[in-house]
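User: Let's play a game. I give you a shape written as tokens, and you guess the letters that built it. Ready? Here's round one.
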């Protein structure tokens, strides 16, 4: 099974409803976290570099094991009680995890479009303005994934305004309706946000509610570059 197929199989096993019930309202640890206990780099390491598709609980256990001393040092400095801090921390890390694995999956989709070895993802690139960086036929494309209230088109923006990196900056704006599990009104008509979502060929969703990107997200840029270099 290819990495992207394995990842999609994994995403379909995630019980989003159960996680939301557990963590969505828990917002105890909301202060800025020092870089040495943030989870972003480890997420890229596990799901992109190592290509291991751990459940959230397994990822969190690895996170705690690798950053135990630094986490505890920060907790003590914050003067929070142990129970409150770790309940809040797990909810905080879950929200980071849920958002970032969507971006990482998009990286796998980009790789399937542009080819092996064309895609780079890391915390460093993220900080420089590229969630997904593609190098294809001598061109660099710096994609940023943005969840929006209303789905927009993929649009190139001037590089100087968007990224410190060489190449074009491209926003991937996408909408996730809250009504995926209840798409129709009482009158039996599909709700407008649901119709907008279904018409957007760049995204699709699994029965558990996980929204993923399709090849249509990246094909226009590949076709444009191929045409320009033909």
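Assistant: Ready! My guess for every position:
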């Amino acid at each position: 099974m290819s990495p992207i197929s394995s990842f999609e199989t994994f995403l379909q096993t995630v019980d989003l409803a159960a996680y939301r019930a557990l963590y969505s309202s828990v917002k105890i640890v909301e202060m800025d976290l020092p870089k040495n206990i943030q989870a972003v780099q480890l997420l890229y390491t596990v799901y992109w570099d190592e290509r291991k598709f751990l459940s959230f609980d397994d990822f969190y256990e690895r996170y705690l094991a690798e950053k135990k001393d630094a986490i505890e040092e920060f907790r003590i400095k914050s003067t929070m009680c142990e129970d409150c801090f770790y309940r809040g921390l797990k909810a905080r890390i879950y929200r980071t995890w849920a958002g970032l694995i969507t971006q990482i999956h998009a990286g796998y989709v980009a790789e399937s479009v542009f080819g092996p070895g064309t895609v780079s993802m890391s915390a460093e690139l993220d900080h420089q303005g590229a969630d997904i960086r593609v190098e294809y036929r001598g061109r660099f494309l710096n994609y940023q994934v943005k969840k929006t209230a209303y789905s927009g088109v993929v649009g190139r923006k001037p590089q100087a305004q968007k990224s410190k990196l060489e190449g074009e900056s491209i926003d991937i704006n996408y909408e996730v309706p809250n009504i995926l599990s209840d798409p129709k009104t009482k009158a039996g008509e599909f709700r407008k946000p649901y119709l907008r979502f279904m018409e957007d060929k760049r995204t699709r969703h699994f029965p558990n509610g996980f929204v993923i990107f399709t090849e249509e997200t990246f094909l226009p840029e590949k076709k444009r570059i191929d045409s320009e270099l033909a």
